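Hello K.,

You asked for the raw outputs rather than the summary table, so here they are, unedited. I folded two proteins back to back in the same session to keep the settings identical. This is the first:
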Amino acid sequence: MVESTHSSSPNYDKPLPEIDADNREFWDSCKRHEMRLQHCSACGYWRYYPSPICHQCGSFEVEWRPITGLGTVYTFSVIHHPPVPAFSADIPYVYAVVELDEGPMMPTNIIGVASEDVAIGMRVQVTYDDVTPEVTLPKFAPVESS
């Protein structure tokens, strides 16, 4: 896992997630830098985004389990025009969907690599961006070579 070098700022002006009872454990696990996802106790389905019911079988039986933090870039776009002024300093940046090794797809940013070097099928690993004292965003960077 890659650790973030970004320091938290109370002046973070980009949109933040709404944390509620269904997703609090996910966001708390990101804050601890140990991402956990919901795993259905009835059918074994891993799910992201968190919800009270299994998307596969409809069960309410769920466990929060740690994941590997590894995945593959499924698709991506390079953003050249900021959606709001707060993103201006980040241009260009990569908005991607990563297929986690456990199965779920997760929208995210790819960091630590030039936008022109990102590719579908690239192996990535989670990194954590502590953007505020309350919120840590999971982002992904290329898997480090051993």
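The second followed immediately with the same parameters:
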Amino acid sequence: MNELLEVLKYTLPAVVVLLCAVFLIKSFLKDGLDKRRIEAKSKMTDEILQIRLQAYERIVLFLERISLQQLVLRIDDAGIDAGTYHRLLLQTIRDEFEHNLAQQIYISPQAWELVKAAKESVIQIINKAQNDMPKDVTAFDLASKIVELKMLEGNKQLDDSIEFVKKEVRELF
């Protein structure tokens, strides 16, 4: 029995020290891992914020590029008929939209819905101008009618979309 007590005298403190060491090392490693996770998450958040800002920039650029004034100025109407010009305007809008389709991942669903509505409102104005014109007019005549409709009706949907996107960007900061 004395021998058992002697063995316990030496092994029990060693076991206690070992358990304390294991506990301390485990908590130290856990703290280090938590710190690295927080740093990685912070870095990822910064990168995602940068990507989101770029997406908002691209969306505003898209909205500006499909504004009626920009479309009419950018697309050359020399030497083509109104029907061809009409198709060219609509194709340009669709191409711009498809080019920016992936941006919906980074912006809010409300902003994306407004962007789609703005695109559709621009298309409606172009279609209305085309429908109001006789069939044998020039592209210049159609462009003039589009600008006239824009002046008369405005495009509140497009302006509201741009403002909403700008508001969302301000909320990020």
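Residues 2-65 form the longest helix (64 residues).

Happy to rerun anything if the numbers look odd on your end.

Regards,
P.
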